[in-house]
Each structure stands twice: as C-alpha cells, then as structure tokens.
C-alpha cells in the first residue's frame, strides 16, 4: 500500500462515494425542492464561496469553536483531574457536575443570552459551559486510573512536581485527553451552531437559519457539508496524529 | 554530597505499625522492630510472605510515614535507591529517559555512558520498556536506583518471577556494582538460598506482629560461598529456626 495514504483511507473514500451515489439516486426518485441533487448543492457551495460569505461564516464559527473548545478543555480538564485526585472535592461537586451534564444545552444557551446579553461573551460562555462537564467526567476517570505502583515509585524517587506532571501524570491521562478532545470537538461545533442561530449575526448557524427562512435546502446541505468536511479534516490532520504520537511507546499488537 | 560516616549506622526504630481500615479490626504488623544497617553492609530480611517485610521497606523508602518510631538519619538527608519487586518503569519513556528522570532536573544532562556500559544496557538506551525482557527491565530499574548515587540500595524481592538463569545474572550484576561502589544494601526476600549467597548479615523475622528472631553475621566472603556451603548453612539455620526456615524442596523451587 502507498505509504503516503493513511491507513484505511481507501475504504473510507469508497463508502463516501457510495453515500453520494445513494443521494443522487434518491433525488432522482423524489421530485421537487425537498432534496436537491449533489450537483446543485455543490453549485451553491461554489457560489457562496465566490461571494465571500462562506469563508466569512465558516471562519466566524471556527473561531468560536476554537475558543470555546480550548476553554472547555482547560477548565473541564482541571476540574476533572481535581475531582479524580481528591475524593472530598468529588463528593462535594459530583452532583453539581451531574446537574450541569444533564441540563439541556438549549437551557444553558438561553440563560447565558438572558444574563449576559446577546453578545460574543454569552455565546462562548454558553458553549464552554455545555462542554465542561463532559470533559470533566472523562478526565476524572483518567485521574482515577493513575497506576498506584508508578505513583509509589515516583514518591520513592522524590520526583519534583514538574517531573511528575510531565512524565507521570500527562502520559497517563493522554488517552483520556484525546478521547475528550475528539468527542468534544463534535459536540462543541454543533452547540456553536445553535448559539449562532439564536443570537449571532454571522457564522454557519446564522447562515443556516437565514436559508431555513428561505426554504433553501441546497444552501442548508451545502453549509452542513462544508462544515462537516472542515471538522473531519481537523480530526484527521490534528487529533489523530496527536493520538498516534501519544501511543508510540505501546508495543505493537500482532493484529496491527 | 553528604559524608557517608554521618549517615551510618542507619537506625530504624518502629515501636508500632498498625493498619487501620474502617469496619475492620486494626491490624498490628510491626511491634518493637529495631534494625541497624552499617556502612557497606548487605543485610537480608528473611521471613515468610505477608509478615510485614514490605511494610518495613516502605517505611525505609519514606512511602509510609504513619508509624510510631523513627529513622536516623532523617530520610531527607539520605539518598535511597529503591528497586521494587516489579520494575515499575514508565512505559511511555525510553530506557534512558527512565533512568535520567530519577535525577534532579539540574543533573539530567550528565553522561551516563559508564552506568549503562557497566550494566550492559548501552544498546537498549533508546528502547521502550515494553520491548524488554523481565531481566533487562530489572537491570534498567537497577540503573535508575544507582544513578542517584544512593547511600542505601533497597531491594524488595528483586528476583521473584525471573527464571533461574536471569535471576543469577541479575544477582551477579547487582553485587558486582555493590562491591565496586561499596554500597549498603537492604534486601527483603523469602528465598533463603538467595540470601545466603549474597548477604553479610541475615535478619530472620517471625510471626505477626513481626519481630526479629535471629541476627546472623556471615563473614564468609561471597566468592567462597559454594553450593555445598549454602546447603550446609541452610541445614544449620533450619535446625535452629524451624518456624522461619525450611530446607524443603518447595522452598527451593520458589
């Protein structure tokens, strides 16, 4: 197999091709505007890109995703690690976490807009708050799973705090970080769209609500397609290589 | 670097060590346990499994401070090189990184060629622990304990779960270094033959709470301890301390 093609790319491309084929077939069976053909959707994407709106909206959404995602990983990670390491804190805050985890995203978004106004701060806060409990729960598991034998070893050698964090703690929670990052990215961008739909003057979510009012299904599908592609690329180009790097020390299993 | 003369003899006094768990009666594992380790001495603690040998090591390593008694000199003055029963290497760091990480940050970049050469680890420096055999991984654990220039090396059953050949090889490696650097060693084992082959002093423990039942000096130089010498000593010891030592085949095979 070609060394430059990531493992499993070919079957993935084939399955995507199959999906488009299926889509084309269904559009031919269904008449009217409810399901535009792939060609019409692509034509819209090209148009929108030429007008500059596509880039503007996608960039606006991506920057919100980036800020909210980073904040949520940082805050949620800190909370999760603290809860995993200190049972007393866990007993105190566990129910808060469960409440936040089970509050509908929409409620948090509306409350943020009500309390903070229809502002960028409110939008980012809402998305971050939605994502924090998710990260915290996964990272708490990570902190709980620290190997006690290795902990003892690092105490016996009197590892300095810095050494412990970098060489003992981080490598052990790395799989949990990647898991929460990957599931988090998917969650965050969906919530960003809702936030934009409800109270932002730009972004993919705003564009979707605009075209919804015009019943322009091709535009809806076009935006959705573009944004899904962008997120898939981020996952493949950034997160998956990070995960592979974090796993480099693991002995290769015979199945691989 | 501290003056070794101030550190030794190292004295461990445990008046009482009790494990308390909620809902269970307190379990007293050590009472009036006193141990003195002299400079350059290899001391083996011997006793049946589960009588608190590992607890003693944990106290010496500073991992367990919840006991009545004390250690002199205090542990922060004393560099202890711990070698656990399992290698306990960081699987996500290379052999070399594992050894270097034991050093304080300022000393991490010094050359370790001699150490790795001595322990025949040079060609393994860039490998990860998952690629090593049990014997090799323990040699790395030994390198990690030696790199900090310990005043006292502490071994918890270092040869358990190694095959006979690997165990003999590791033992030779350890005691070559110990002789070369005149290190003091505290080793815990339940294998009396192993202890007889290397110890300057045997301390036999019995029953719970663990108490010292015999403290035996072995002046015979290590290179003169033949197999028949070990068997003779073993027979003598077994006769004197039947509750701690048996000559039975079962013991030999462990």
Query: What does the oligomeric state look like here?
Result: heterodimer
Q: In CATH terms, what is the architecture of chain A?
A: Orthogonal Bundle
- CATH homologous superfamily designation of chain A: MetI-like
Could you tell me the mean pLDDT of chain B?
Answer: 85
> What is the global morphology of chain A?
globular
Q: Residue-averaged pLDDT of chain A, rounded?
A: 88
**Terminal-residue CA separation of chain A:** 14 Å
Structural class of chain A: mainly alpha
**In angstroms, what is the radius of gyration of chain A?**
22 Å
Q: What would you call the shape of chain B?
A: globular
What does this structure look like?
The complex is a heterodimer of chains A (256) and B (254). Chain A contains ten helices and no strands. Chain A is an all-alpha fold and 256 residues long. Chain A has a single domain, classed as MetI-like (MetI-like fold, Orthogonal Bundle). The two termini of chain A are 14 Å apart. With 254 residues, chain B is an alpha/beta fold. Chain B has a domain of 139 residues: P-loop containing nucleotide triphosphate hydrolases (Rossmann fold, 3-Layer(aba) Sandwich), CATH 3.40.50. Chain B is built from nine helices and nine strands. In chain B, β1 and β2 form a beta hairpin. The C terminus of chain B is likely disordered. Chains A and B meet through α7 and α8 of A and loops of B.
Kindly list the characteristics that best describe this protein.
heterodimer; A: 256 residues; mainly alpha; MetI-like fold; 10 helices; B: 254 residues; alpha/beta; Rossmann fold; 6-stranded mixed β-sheet; 3-stranded antiparallel β-sheet; 32% helix; disordered C terminus
